[in-house]
Amino acid sequence: MSSNQVESPLEREANERPRGYRIRLNLRLALIFSAVFLIGSAMLFSATFYTLYSNLRDDDLSHINARLLGFWAQYQAGGIDRIVQQIQNENLLMGERPYFVRIANSKNNTLVQRYPLVWESFDFTRLEQISPSGTDHLITLSSPQANYHLEVAGVRLSPDYVLQVGMSTQSRNLILDIFQRNFIGISLLLILMSFLAGLFISSRTFKPVGQLNRMIKSIISTGRTDARIPVHSARTELGELVVYFNEMLDRIDRLIREMRNSLDAVAHDLRTPLTRLRGLSEIALKGPEDAQAYRKALEDALEEADIILRMLNTLMDISEAESGVMRLRIQPLPLDTLIEELAEMYRFTADEKGVTITTDLVPVSIPADPVRLRQVIGNLLDNAVKYTPEGGSVVVRARATEVEATIDVEDTGIGIPTDELNRIWTRLYRAHSVPMVQGLGLGLSLVKAIVETHGGKVSVESTPGKGTRMKVVLPLAARNG
Questions:
Q1: What pLDDT shows up at residue 83?
Q2: What is the dihedral of CA 336, 337, 338, 343, to 10 degrees?
Q3: Mind listing the domains of the chain with CATH numbers?
Q4: Of 8, 113, 376, 419, whose CB neighbour count within 10 A is largest?
């Protein structure tokens, strides 16, 4: 930034932020996406882990209960001796898994107990410390040397004997550990992939936002609005945003050009009356002292001042109308009566040129500002008479439907070239085809602004050498606001 360039408040605020503050939007969205995926993965892992754990635990308990049921059946068939003999003869394997078995008396003293040697570190004496009434509940034994537990369930064979069978949770823990490691590993990989995918997708998706941000920053820094953001796809919301932003820049450029052209035209048009005003004053001052000459100079100066004042007032009226701040005094207005009055007034000027003015009107009343609508119709009649040669005619028509009224001002004048039709509404524009006709070039701009302020619209049809038709459409219902 050059030394003579003033830094804007937005630029100052952006530059004063710490570097870490400027986290790119696509990175934030990728992190949010990954965080959501992480939370979802954690919830899925919790639900799946709990379901797997419950199923494995139920499966272990079903094995224990099945073994208890088998011993109970043996007891019913052959008594306690048969069970003891079977325990001593078995290899303490349930399928491929070892198990623990114990028989206690009514006082919970151990009568028979067998378990694999690998379980010697478990404190089996804890089973005798449990009250006899609690021996048929599920009991968990732990060992400081093992990373698994023994789960022991019991059944009362008779009032004198209690049978307990236990299995380790080693197999269950192994499966759960494998599941946990695999799930975490896959989840981390998927989270990384989701972050990279989110970063890639968001970077491509929000690429227009970055371009928009850089474009706005460039406009703030340089004041230039001629650059445009390339549109890759207008089917998305961001694509539409880019299209609308480019259209906004086009409109701003157009308004700036029109403003510059208007300022140039105003400066040019004001130069002539101001120069004449100054010239008249100098001539009056340099000439001999003559009251009549002074009076004539003042009259000419007043006429030039009126031209300047009329131009400035018209420009202000147009600006007020286009910006929506023009105050309208809306009231029921008999349109046919107003047109007839204006036509009668302009017939004097038309008769001097040899132009006839006729009307074709139907009675219609509209809500409008009579002063402003008088300006509209008066400007249209003035232009029609001004650009119609001797022997021509001007016809003013008024029609109405259920929702709108239409005013047509049609002449047999010189017409408007096709390439100038869209430019006649521009402020201070005067047709190049008729440079000898005097005017400010503001009449049609004022007409368009007033009509649109009333909620209507104005259009033109013209054939060079044959004539022009101006059409004004106004609503029959008052405009809200």
A1: 84
A2: 90
A3: 17-205 (3.30.450.210), 237-323 (1.10.287.130), 331-475 (3.30.565.10)
A4: 376
